[in-house]
Amino acid sequence: MTIGIIGGGIAGLASAIALAKIGKQVDVFEKASAFEEVGAGLQIGPNAVSALKALGAYKAIEPHAFAPEQILIRDGLTGKLLNRLHLGDSFEKLFKQPYRVIHRADLLNGLLETAKSYDSINLHTSKPLVSLDLNKDTNECTFADDTTSNHDLLIGADGFRSIVRRHIINDGPPVYAGHSLFRSLIPIENIEHINDIKDVNLWLYPHGHVVHYPVSNGEQINIVAAVEQNWEKRGWSLPADTSQVLEHFKNAHDSLMAIISQPQGWLKWAAAGHPFSKIWHKNNALLVGDAVHPTLPYMAQGAAMAIEDAVCLGSHIKNQRPVSEYAQTRQARTQKIVETSTRLGKIYHMTNPTRLARNMVIKSTSSNSQFKRMSWLYSWRAPNL
Length: 385
Ligand SMILES: Cc1cc2nc3c(=O)[nH]c(=O)nc-3n(C[C@H](O)[C@H](O)[C@H](O)COP(=O)(O)OP(=O)(O)OC[C@H]3O[C@@H](n4cnc5c(N)ncnc54)[C@H](O)[C@@H]3O)c2cc1C
Description:
Blueprint: E1 2-6, H1 10-21, E2 25-29, E3 41-44, H2 46-55, H3 58-61, E4 70-75, E5 81-86, H4 89-95, E6 100-103, H5 104-116, E7 121-124, E8 129-133, E9 139-143, E10 148-151, E11 153-156, H6 163-168, E12 175-187, H7 188-191, E13 200-205, E14 208-215, E15 220-228, E16 238-240, H8 242-248, H9 254-260, E17 266-273, E18 281-282, E19 285-287, H10 302-318, H11 326-348, H12 354-363, H13 367-378
Parallel strand pairs: 1-2, 1-11, 2-7, 4-13, 11-19
Antiparallel strand pairs: 3-6, 4-5, 8-9, 9-10, 12-15, 12-17, 13-14, 14-15, 16-17, 18-19
Bound molecules: flavin-adenine dinucleotide (FAD).
The site of flavin-adenine dinucleotide has 35 residues, from helix 1, strand 3, strand 12 and helix 10.
């Protein structure tokens, strides 16, 4: 069986490793001239760690990951601590895997290093897919350089603007969510004096929120500021002025202001995606990662889902299950994550009077009930490959 993967991001490389691990020959076609990720951070929960271990990629990633001790939730207007979730021994004991934070480039490089250790993975760069014929016996891909390739199984891992999705689901271009995400990286030495800077910090704010945590083994702090805003522009790394963030959070408590006033500049992304689709395949082509279930990043699970997809796909094919049944193994879980992310955005951005009620609920939630609530997400275990 010949397998082609379109897209060499997290989903594409993880899928290539999963398939190579079960003895398949795989070609990965990436449109960029190199396999690389731009600056930003990722939270890697126990479910994602489990999937990375199943791929045999965690050992290449772990040395670059940072182990935060807790997640702190605060009200961004008052600065008050609403709750804390300890990520130490009891968390690891319960969910059997640790919680880590990492620079995207470190995660991708770990996957790349693992992929390169397989002779059966052929990595091709500067190969933008431009057209596709899924009706032939072997799916025919045509690239921008006019070359073609044919594959018994084609995997679309080409992100939320996926061309493969267009051929499988055909539900039009991505829809803007009305949220902008500003992100920046700050050297830790600039803000080392700020309390709890080495933890995962979540600040709730009317019509927005801020998340920050260490990456690059603790050398930098990744900050993401989410803002409700009807701004629609294509591009993942559009430069944005600091004043845009400060204007939105102008009533922030001093302790939040101390963080968001640090960056000299931000990169901006107008969040966009597709409504959740039940169609995931056509003939012998299927979708994984953001190409099939793009999500607002408020559960910090987009990359995690992509890595889970890869392991489940590997296991599915190893067990000789039909492509048409793959979606059944993933849809309920991914739909719940996508819908919960959207709901969390609404909760994080509440204004008075619901903001006050929300704060009381968060404050009164015990660690035990928080753990219980997260069990469906974090107790997921990767199948063996
Ligand atoms: C601000 C922010 C914070 C986030 N935080 C987290 C987090 O904490 N934890 C988490 O798990 N997730 C997080 N996510 C989500 C995560 O980044 C994505 O879900 C993940 O990157 C999806 O990976 P992917 O490989 O499916 O898609 P992508 O990363 O988009 O990769 C797609 C790849 O396909 C290539 N490609 C596209 N079109 C073509 C073509 N025509 N031909 C060939 N190649 C093509 C692209 O160049 C790219 O390399 C966050 C997202 C955002 C925006």
